[in-house]
Amino acid sequence: MEAFVAGMGLLLDPKILLVVFLGTVIGIIVGALPGISGSTTTALLLPFTITMGPVPAIAFLGAIYCAANFGGSITAILVNSPGDPSASATAFDGYPMAQRGEAGRALGMSAVASAIGGIFSVIVLIVAAPLLARVAYSFGPPEYFALAVFGLSMVAMTGGDSPVKNLIAGAFGVLLATVGQDLTTGVERYTFGIHSFTDGIEFIPVLIGLFALAELFEQAAQLGQRTVAAKLGAVRLPSWQDIKDCTKAISLSSVLGTFIGILPALGATTAAMIAYVETKRWSKNKAQFGKGAIEGVAGPEAANNAAVGGAMVPTLALGIPGSTTTAIILAGLIVQGIRPGPHLFTEQPLLLYAVFSSMLLANLLYLVLGLGFAKVFARISLIPAPLLWPAVFVLSVIGAYAPNQAMAEVWVAIAFGFVGFFMKRYGFSPAPLVIGLVLGRMVEETLKQSLLIFDLSWGGFLNRPIALALFGLTALFLLGPFLLQRLRARP
Amino acid sequence: MSSNRVAAAAVIAIAAALFAATFWFEKMPEGITRGFGAELFPRLVLGTIIALALLLALLPAASEPLARIPPMVWYSGAALILFTAIVPVIGMLPAMFAFLLALGYLWGERRHLILLSSAVLLTAAIWGIFVKGFGVQLPKGLLA
Description:
The complex is a heterodimer of chains A (491) and B (144).
Chain A: H1 2-10, H2 14-32, H3 38-45, H4 54-79, H5 88-99, H6 103-136, H7 141-153, H8 163-176, E1 180-181, E2 188-189, H9 203-221, H10 240-262, H11 268-282, H12 295-318, H13 324-335, H14 344-347, H15 349-380, H16 385-401, H17 407-425, H18 430-453, H19 465-489
Antiparallel strand pairs in A: 1-2
Helix pairs in contact in A: 1-15, 2-4, 2-15, 3-4, 3-9, 3-13, 4-5, 4-6, 4-12, 4-13, 4-15, 5-6, 5-12, 6-10, 6-12, 6-15, 7-18, 7-19, 8-18, 9-16, 9-17, 9-18, 10-11, 10-12, 11-12, 13-18, 16-17
Chain B: H1 3-21, H2 30-33, H3 40-58, H4 71-90, H5 92-106, H6 112-133
Helix pairs in contact in B: 1-3, 4-5, 5-6
C-alpha cells in the first residue's frame, strides 16, 4: 500500500505528468490514424524512451497503449476503418450509428465504456499482479521454461487466422533471439560476419521494420482506396438511458476483456471480438446489432481497453507478454536494463506502482480528451497517405538509427520491413514473431539451467508438478481445437 | 500449388539452410559446453519449425492464386533502399528532405506547396528535436 501511495505520488512529478499526457495524446492520434496501430507506435517511439529513465519511459508507453485502443474507435465510428485493429468490432455498430447522424453519441459512449473498461482492468492489475508474482516467486528455471513454452503456445491464437502459421512465426522469433554470442560458450551464432550482430539482434530495428515499414508497404499496395467520413456533430456524454442500456454490456465486457488480456499472447482485438459476440448474445436487442446498436459500441470498447490492464498482469508479474504491444513494452523494459518478473515487486515496487497509477491517469485523460477533442482527432485522422507514410518512414529511420547511431540498424529495419510484408502476404502475422523474439532468450536460458539441474535428463521435468501442469495446459491449448474439430466431425 | 504449400516449402528451405549453418558453428570442448553446445537449441527450434511446416503443407488452403503485388510496393521499397544508400553520400537530413518529396509525389500528392511545406517542416522538426534537442549525430555525408 505504501508503495502504491508513493507510486501515485510520482504522478505529481511534472515530468511524469507531461509524458503521460503526451503519451495519451499521441496514443489517441495514432490510434485514430488508419494503419498505425498501438503496436506500431510503441515500436516506433520505443527508441526515444531510452534516455527517459525507466519510470517515465514505461509510463509513456503504457499511456500510448491505453489511449490507442480508444483512438482506434474514432475512425471505426466515423469512416468505418478502424484506426487500430482492436476497434474492428466497434465499427460494426459505430459506423451505422454515424451514418444515421449519431456519431457524437457513439463516440461519447465509446469514451465512457473505454474508460470504465480500462480503469476496471488497472484495478485488477493492481490486485492480481502482486498475487501472481507471489505465486511465481518460488518458480525455478524448470517452471519458468514451462511458463515460457506455455506463453509461446498461446501465440497459436495471436495475429493471423492459422494457428500453425502463428506457431511457425513464433518459433522463428525464438530462433532470431539466438543470433549473436551464446552466453554459455561464447560461440557466435548466425552473425554471418556482421559485427553489430555479435551482441544479438537489437529489438528496436526489428520492431520498427515488422510494424511500421511492413505497414508502409501494405499502404503502398492499397493506394487509391478512398474512405468517406460521416459527419460528426458534438461529442457528448451518453444519456442516463444509454448508460442504463449498456450497463450489462460494459460490465460483462470489462470482465471478459480483462480475463482475455491476462491470458498470454491474446490481446485487445480478440477481447473486443469475443465481447461483441457475448454482448449480442446477452442483449434484449439482438436484432439491432449490425444496424447501429449502442451496446455494440459499448461492449467491444470496454473489452479492448480492459484487455490492456489484463495484458500487463503476466507481462509485469511473470515477464511473459500478454499481447503484441506488451511484448514491445517488455522489450522497452529490457532495453532499460530491467527484466520483468516476480522479483520486480520486491526490488522495484515504486516503478510498478508508478506504471499502475500512470495507466489509471491515462484512462481518465483520454475520457476527457476524447469527449472534448474528438473532432480534432478525427480531422487529424484524415491526413492523406502520401504525406503521412513518408513521415512515418522518416521517423522509423531516426528511431532505428538513434539508439546506436548506426546505419546498419536502418538496413536491419528495412530488411524486416520486407520480411513483415511477405509474412503478411502469406498469412503469417508478425505479432507471434515478436513474442518469440522477446521470450527466446528466456526459453533457452531456462532450458539450459533446467537440464543442468536435472543432469541433462529431460525426465527431470516429471518431478516438477507446476512445470508438468503448465506443459499439460500447453498441450491442451495446442491440441484442444484439433481434437474438438475431429470429435464434432464424427457422425 | 496452394499458398500453404508455397509457404511451407519456403519455410522448410530457410529452416534447412539455417540448420546446415549450425554445423559451421565453432566447436567447443565438452568442459565448456557442459553437454549443451551452442548449436543444440537452434537445432531444436529448427526441427520444430520443419515439423510445423510439414503440418502446414498438409492443411487445406484457398486455391485461388494470390493477387499480384502492385508495382507501387516495389517502387516504394526501391525508394527506401535508395534513401539508405545515399545517406552516407549526401547526409541524412538532405536525404530525408528528398525522400519526403519523392515518395509523396510517387504516391500521388500533386499539391506541390503542401508537399514542399510538409517536407520542410518535418525535416526542420527532425533537426530541431533530434539534432539540437537530443544531440543525435546524424550522418553528414561526403559533401560536409
